[in-house]
Amino acid sequence: MTYGDRRAERVKLETRHPVNLMGVDGTWRRGCILLDISQSGARLEVDGTLDVLKAQEFFLVLSSRGLAFRRCELVRVDGSEIGVRFIEERKRKGRPVIPR
């Protein structure tokens, strides 16, 4: 299974970039390292257990203050690495996506 849109250009990060995963309800948080990212998804190395990811949907918090984040869904697990696909709010609410 792939994450994101494989046609989207991915950026592989050369340095370790710590980020966090956080439950949609805010009840859990898990540290991880951002390995690569595209417009539609990301690949992460998760610290600790993956049991909290059973929710399938969570936030990827990209800044230490929590101001930059993306809602995402789990699409792949490979050991401590996961693949996530970003969820667009317009799609989640059932509204049609209008091309720009």
From TrEMBL:
Entry-linked SUPFAM superfamilies: PilZ domain-like
Highest taxon above the source species: Bacteria
GO molecular function: cyclic-di-GMP binding
Pfam family name, one: PilZ
Domain PilZ, chain residue ranges per copy: 6-89
InterPro entries documented for this protein: PilZ_domain
Record protein name field: PilZ domain-containing protein
Organism expressing this protein natively: Bradyrhizobium macuxiense
